[in-house]
């Protein structure tokens, strides 16, 4: 059983021609209300890929929260670890996105940001084949990372560079088979450089296996302790929604890693899943994805 831990939310997706300047009024081209959240997106995609997956998060005891649970059930995700909060409403994102996929995101923190450490400790008494975590507090990341070290569990960490959660000294705590995911902008912001070089950070964590950097339409970059791999050719995509693409990429990579694919094939798996999500207004897809078939059609 694979586990996704982190945020799940209701999302207002507003499409405009161009993102507004300060105090500028713009016409809304479309407005959709969808279910989102990084952990929910990852769990849904892993399930679509045929992996038995459980989601750990929390929603409000409201209509939106109950609908979110029903939606995750529809993807075949195990929701026994998806809880209702009496104290907090369901988290709400509002995203304003232009036709090029550029966006501004506004967050009203809700239940998925307030589950406590004891709930995580209880969850980690079970045995998991892999864990993907995005959107936890730093202390909660540490709990999961400690579990991965002790049990040698395969661990994916989605960083939150923009919120300042990942610092240089944190790398010494990445123990066990850890894969670290970030996008190109996050990597440059973290390194404070246009040049992407994580060599010294591999020295901080002797068991950090991979740093995976997504670059949107420009492809992706995989950094290992001794090698680097790039994918520049990616499937042509008619973008409807860029939200959830990074989450889908992480899920695709996870699938390829579990199946023993080559480094470049793992990146291809990530891009195949991102493409499916980008072409869906919901940020997720119910479509079952034949990874091997798609890789042959798009890359070979």
The largest pleated sheet is described as: 9 strands, mixed
Amino- and carboxy-terminal Cα gap: 31 Å
Q: Roughly how much helix do the residues carry, as a percent range?
A: 25-40%
Sum up the overall morphology in one term: globular
Order of helices and strands: EEEHEHEEEHEHEEHHEEEHHH
Question: What gyration radius follows from the Cα positions, in whole Å?
Answer: 18 Å
CATH arch. level architecture of the domain at 2-6 and 41-57 and 120-299? 3-Layer(aba) Sandwich
**Given the helix and strand composition, which structural class is it?**
alpha/beta
Quaternary structure of the protein: single chain
Q: Give the number of helices.
A: 9
Tell me the name of the CATH homologous superfamily of the domain at 2-6 and 41-57 and 120-299. Ribokinase
Strands ordered across the widest β-sheet = 5-4-1-8-9-10-11-12-13
Average pLDDT confidence is 83
What does this structure look like?
This protein has helices at 38-48, 63-74, 117-123, 138-151, 184-191, 199-204, 245-258, 263-278, 291-299, and strands spanning 2-6, 9-16, 28-36, 53-60, 82-85, 92-97, 103-108, 130-134, 154-158, 178-183, 208-214, 220-224, 228-231. The chain has 300 residues and is of the alpha/beta class. It has a domain at 2-6 and 41-57 and 120-299: UDP-N-acetylmuramoyl-L-alanine:D-glutamate ligase. A nine-stranded mixed sheet has the order 5-4-1-8-9-10-11-12-13, sandwiched between helices. Helix 1 crosses helix 7 (245-258), helix 7 runs antiparallel to helix 8 and helix 8 (263-278) packs across helix 9. It starts with a strand and ends with a helix. The mean pLDDT is 83.
